[in-house]
UniProtKB/TrEMBL annotation:
Keywords: ATP-binding, Carbohydrate metabolism, Kinase, Nucleotide-binding, Transferase. Pathway: Cell wall biogenesis; peptidoglycan recycling; Amino-sugar metabolism; 1,6-anhydro-N-acetylmuramate degradation. It catalyses: 1,6-anhydro-N-acetyl-beta-muramate + ATP + H2O = N-acetyl-D-muramate 6-phosphate + ADP + H(+). Belongs to the anhydro-N-acetylmuramic acid kinase family. Its EC number is 2.7.1.170. Pfam families: AnmK. The keyword Lyase does not apply. The keyword Iron does not apply. Signal peptide: none annotated. This is Anhydro-N-acetylmuramic acid kinase. Catalyzes the specific phosphorylation of 1,6-anhydro-N-acetylmuramic acid (anhMurNAc) with the simultaneous cleavage of the 1,6-anhydro ring, generating MurNAc-6-P. Is required for the utilization of anhMurNAc either imported from the medium or derived from its own cell wall murein, and thus plays a role in cell wall recycling. The lineage of its organism: Bacteria, Pseudomonadati, Bacteroidota, Cytophagia, Cytophagales.
Length: 398
């Protein structure tokens, strides 16, 4: 037997594993690195975050990724070059943080790498009946494995597509395994570039559990912060807080069939971008809004579309506890607008459940790799788009 297969087999049989989960999301702010200790699998998964950090991307790498990010027309050589480059970059970032943490690579069992989404095209978006759902992440796992010397699982989303899903959101698995609690209706709300939530019913029934994107989280706010403030984001929503919501622009922004489409569904910055906002401004004759008013309206747009989706799963007689995660939880204007629209919900962050809300998505990929190694038996019912859990491709270091 190839020694590396034997090593993988041994890791799969361990009572607990040390797995590094990686996430670089649509915000392009940097690489989230979560070193997790994971026991068990499926609903018995127990995760402890031993270390977590975000290694920021410098302006150069952000600019390189933006040349191909969420664009229909790109330079193919650039895409080809970035695929190994990002893999190596992520590998180098892991080595550097392991040094900081004084942990040897040999003490880590697995790296679980999301890579960088560069294009997401579910059928509902590309609308070409000839083609399936499609999504593309780059930063090839072989380069992560070779750079770190650690067996790497990567490219998790393709199996989801292969089994009928849209390739996202994958949060459903991690959220159910880590956070489902009999007796409490839970909503796990993640606000990254794109917002999504997982519904975890109080009866713990896996066949009812799902995650869906709701639309923009921070992606539009960040795009206009770069334009108006020359900053990556509107810190603490200060600019938005100084403006007034334009009801006519808000109404135009909401006229997209995505918002009333059935769950689960996905989207991305391919749809929700500055061009989308400019079209809505033309339609509502609000081209001359002040920077602050535009920002205030975009925050309300994110808040309204998030709460509109959450309200669709809520029964009037029941109570719901919302646990927030992702960078949007740090924006008081956004969270304030959401709380106002959901007065009957209790709000917390996933920190109160033992998982740092900034680390949650990186932890998800560690959990997914753990499941591919040692689980894979949980049924989510016979539903399109929620396949059995065994995702990711294996890369050996040599
Ligand atoms: N103090 C703050 N004030 C306002 N916004 C903030 C603050 N801190 C973080 N954010 C927002 O959070 C974003 C980063 O969020 P996060 O890292 O969760 O996104 P992501 O993982 O890249 O996206 P996705 O989940 O869509 O892939 C920033 O770009 C910014 O918009
Ligand atoms: C295609 C893609 O990368 N989608 C991301 C993105 O970021 C948030 C939202 O859009 C979600 O659908 C997904 O990521 C999370 C981790 C998920 O799959 O659950």
């Amino acid at each position: 037997m190839n020694k590396q297969i034997q090593h993988l087999y041994d890791i799969a049989q361990k009572a607990e594993r040390r797995i590094i989960g990686l996430m670089s999301g649509t915000s392009l702010d940097g690489l989230d690195i979560a070193l997790c200790r994971i026991e068990g699998s499926g609903p018995a998964t127990n995760v402890t975050i031993e270390q977590f950090t975000t290694v920021p991307y410098n302006d150069d790498i952000k600019a390189e990724i933006r040349t191909i990010f969420a664009k229909r027309e790109i330079d193919f050589e650039q895409l080809c070059l970035l695929n190994p480059y990002i893999g190596r970059l992520h590998g180098t970032m892991i080595r550097s943080v392991l040094d900081d943490w004084k942990i040897e690579a040999s003490e880590v069992d697995i790296v679980a790498s999301h890579g960088q989404t560069v294009y997401h095209a579910p059928k509902t978006q590309h609308r070409n009946p000839k083609f399936p759902n499609a999504t593309l992440q780059i930063g090839d796992g072989d380069h992560v494995a070779a750079t770190t010397g650690i067996i790497t699982f990567s490219d998790f989303r393709q199996k989801h597509v292969a089994l009928g899903g849209e390739g996202a959101p994958l949060a459903v698995y991690g959220d159910y395994f880590m956070f489902s609690k009999i007796g409490e209706n839970r909503i796990l709300l993640n606000m990254g570039g794109i917002a999504n939530f997982t519904y975890l019913p109080a009866d713990g029934d896996a066949s009812k559990v799902f995650t869906t994107d709701t639309g923009p989280g921070n992606t539009l706010l960040d795009a206009y912060a770069r334009r108006f403030l020359n900053k990556p984001y509107d810190e603490d929503g200060k600019l938005a807080a100084s403006g007034q919501v334009s009801e006519s622009l808000l109404a135009a922004l909401k006229t997209n069939p995505f918002f009333d489409a059935p769950f689960p569904k996905t989207t991305g910055p391919e749809v929700f971008n500055t061009l989308y906002v400019e079209k809505a401004q033309t339609q509502s004759q609000t081209e001359n809004l002040s920077d602050a008013d535009l920002m205030a309206t975009l925050v309300q747009f994110s808040a309204d579309t998030i709460t509109h989706s959450i309200e669709r799963v809520m029964q009037r007689s029941d109570t719901y506890h919302v646990y927030m995660s992702g960078g949007g939880m740090h924006n008081p204007v956004l969270t304030g607008a959401i709380r106002k629209r959901l007065p009957n919900c209790t709000f917390d962050t996933t920190n109160s459940l033992g998982i740092n809300g900034d680390a949650k998505e990186a932890v998800l990929f560690a959990v997914l790799a753990n499941e591919s190694l040692a689980g894979g038996n949980t049924s989510f019912g016979d539903r399109q788009g929620v396949p059995t859990v065994s995702m990711g491709k294996v890369s050996f270091p040599q």
